[in-house]
Design goal:
Order of helices and strands: EEEEHEHEEHEHHEHE
Radius of gyration: 16 Å
Strand content: 25-35%
Largest sheet: 7 strands, parallel
CATH class: Alpha Beta
Number of strands: 10
Number of domains: 1
Shape: globular
CATH topology: Rossmann fold
C-alpha cells in the first residue's frame, strides 16, 4: 500500500488573492520505501513500464494534488486505468484533437504546463514519452525544453516527474538531460 504525506510549511496567497497551504515536500511510501519529492524540483523516475510513476501519480491525485499527465497514452486510457479525479491528460500525438499536442510543438507543451501550474496550487506534472519527443526534436531543443519545464516547476513550486528508460539514451545524453534532476530508481 502506498501512503502519501504532505509537509506543509506556510500559508501562501495565489494570484487571485486566495489563501492556500504551500507544500514544501510530498512523501510517498512505495512498498516500505519512502520517496520524498521536494516542491519546485524535477525528478527522473527510472521506470521501464511506467508502473512506479503512474502509481505515484495516482496516490498524489488521491491526496489532493492536481496532476498533469503528458503521455504517449491516450487520455481515456490514462484516466480509466490509473487516475482518480484531478488528473488532466495531454496526449503526445500527431493526430488532431483538443487533448493532443504534436511532439514537435514543445512550446505548446511548456505553455500548457505553465498554465496548469499557475491555475493549480500543489501541482505535479508527469512527463512520459521523452524518447518519443526525441524522435521529432534534436537533442539541444529537447534539453532546452527540459530546462524550461524545470524553470516552470521551480517558479510555481510544482513537482515534475519524468519517466526515463536509461536504455533509450546514450550515457552522455542522459547525463545532460539529468543536470537539473534528482534520480528516483
Amino acid at each position: 500500500m502506498w501512503e502519501v504525506k504532505k509537509v506543509c510549511a506556510l500559508l501562501a496567497t495565489d494570484t487571485v488573492g486566495e489563501a492556500f497551504q504551500k507544500v514544501e515536500s510530498v512523501s510517498v511510501n512505495v512498498g516500505g520505501e519512502v520517496l520524498i519529492f521536494d516542491c519546485g524540483r524535477t525528478y527522473f523516475v527510472v521506470d521501464q513500464r511506467l508502473d512506479k510513476m503512474l502509481g505515484i501519480a495516482r496516490d498524489l491525485v488521491g491526496a489532493g494534488n492536481n496532476v498533469l499527465c503528458i503521455s504517449r497514452f491516450h487520455p481515456d486510457l490514462v484516466n480509466d486505468r490509473w487516475s482518480e479525479r484531478g488528473m488532466k491528460s495531454i496526449w503526445l500525438s500527431e493526430r488532431p484533437g483538443t487533448r493532443n499536442v504534436p511532439p514537435s510543438q514543445l512550446s505548446r507543451l511548456t505553455q500548457d504546463a505553465a498554465s496548469f501550474t499557475r491555475n493549480n496550487p500543489s501541482s505535479v506534472i508527469m512527463l512520459d514519452g521523452i524518447e518519443y519527443l526525441s524522435l521529432f526534436n534534436d537533442f539541444q531543443r529537447l534539453q532546452m525544453f527540459i530546462e524550461q519545464m524545470n524553470d516552470i516547476v521551480m517558479e510555481s513550486h510544482a513537482i515534475l516527474l519524468i519517466a526515463v528508460d536509461p536504455r533509450l539514451f546514450d550515457s552522455r545524453s542522459l547525463a545532460r538531460l539529468q543536470r537539473f534532476a534528482e534520480i528516483v530508481n
